[in-house]
Amino acid sequence: MSRLRIGLIAAALSIGALISTTLTAEAASVPQPYLAIARDFPDPGLLHANGKYWLYSTNSGGLNLPVSSATDPYGTWGAITEGMPTIGAWARTGLTWAPDVSQLADGTFVLYYTARDIASNRQCIGAAKADNPAGPFIPVGDQSLICTPDQGGSIDASGFTDSDGTRYIAWKNDGNAIGLPTHLCIQKVAADGVTLIGDPQIALTNDPATEGSLIEAPYLIKHKGLYYLFYSYGAYDNENYTEAYASAPSINGPWTRGSAPFMSTANMGGRVVGPGGASILGDLVAFHAVTHQPGLVRPTYLINLKWRGTTPTVQLH
Predict the structure, then answer these.
(1) pLDDT single digits (tens) 210-232
(2) How far is CA 253 from CA 9, 89, 222, 223, 249, in A?
(3) Which CATH number fits the domain that encloses residue 260?
(4) Residue 212 burial (10 A CB sphere; 0-12, 13-18, 19+)
(5) Do 172 and 42 lie in a common domain?
(6) What total number of domains does the chain contain?
(7) Which residue, 45, 138, 152, 223, could crosslink 175 as a Cys pair with Cβ 3.0–4.6 Å?
């Protein structure tokens, strides 16, 4: 091989190494956690579809379903718009919480949301569908999808699709609203996302000694054959709010709590206060934290998910 050719190859390798180093440095320069939406945008639901990232939040700013999108999650998020102009006929406006959007096999999108059931005056779970992740989402049917007023209500639904295509909804009974224990439940659902199959199974119940009166905001993922159920506990409006997790070898359990919180005010190094309400997309975690500007404001942050063996953690820099 000629010295000229060897020199060209060496130069190309050097340029490639420089580009790789530059890209790595640029990625590392993104602050973690990253403030994605600075205004009140709690209980964020995260989706990637149609070439964009999408965030949905609990009602704020006069919107039933605040929606924002970005081509780069660590870039600038767009204007916040209304994704569901009209909620289900069974509910009244003003208490529309914790939305979650996922894409169905037919390409359409299903939204799970919490709202105030007119008949029982408890929070219950509804469903809506749209052809576009921006909406408008149209409520499905005239009744709620999941409603357990005798258990205090039903809130915080999120969708999960297993590796074999089976769909589930994780949700919480609102027992703490009436002095009862709270459970995180897993409900099998048909491919349409709105036809319930069988009865819900209780995955976890709050441990008063370590978690207080409630656990909430369940979110399921699967990693290397294990199931992970992320959830929050503590008071949502202060520094005690915490994001935890449990793992299991099967969707049916048994579920074992992690030995330490996934995110807390303490283990986030003071970068945020009261992290919780998380949703997870690959190695990207969306969550809210507490600020007072004045009044309660919960902006949405993003952070990278990392793994230490079978233990999920977050990357701080």
Answers:
(1) 999 999 999 999 999 999 999 99
(2) 54, 36, 13, 15, 6
(3) 2.115.10.20
(4) middle
(5) yes
(6) 2
(7) 152
